Amino acid sequence: MSPVRAVRGATTVGADTPDQVSQRMQELLGDLLARNGLDHDDVISIVFTATGDIVSMFPAAAARAMGMGDVPLLCARELDIVGSTPHCLRVLLHIDTDRTRTELHHVYLHGARGLRDDLPE
After folding, report:
1. Cα–Cα distance for residue pair 86/120, rounded to 1 Å
2. pLDDT at residue 115, as a whole number
3. In terms of DSSP H, where are the helices of the chain?
């Protein structure tokens, strides 16, 4: 078994609708898997958070729609901090990989791009 690592990602939605949340979450998860050379079997679990202005659906439902129903998925509410990015969805994927932390790529899309401008592309 390889070491357990984690990759982070975030995105935003323009409107709190099930279609928008699902589409943006699937885009984010797809990019995280592709950029890191991962497939479904590499994913151990996923933690999702959403800001308080996203209430139309559970972000984990988008992962289940991608075929990740057998992966442990957990949704939580993001802290409500003054000045934080609105309409923001975040993910933390725990993965099984031989890659080192410096070889992994975190993905920030749409209005979430500026959240971690300290990370290399």
Report:
1. 23
2. 78
3. 18-35, 59-65
In this prediction, residue 93 carries a pLDDT of 98
- Residue 120 banded pLDDT, cuts 50, 70, 90: low
Q: What is the pTM of this model?
A: 0.93
Measure the CA–CA gap between 96 and 28, rounded to whole angstroms.
19
Query: Which listed residue (5, 8, 24, 88) is catalytic?
Result: 8
Q: Phi/psi of residue 105, each to 5°?
A: -120, 120
DSSP for 56-70 reads: SS-HHHHHHHTT-TT
Catalytic residue list contains 116: yes
Amino acid at 73: L
**Cα–Cα distance measured from residue 50 to residue 41, given in angstroms and rounded to the nearest whole number:** 25
More confident residue, 120 or 88: 88
Question: Could you confirm whether 75 is annotated as catalytic?
Answer: yes
Given the residues 64, 99, 103, 113, the one annotated as active site: 64
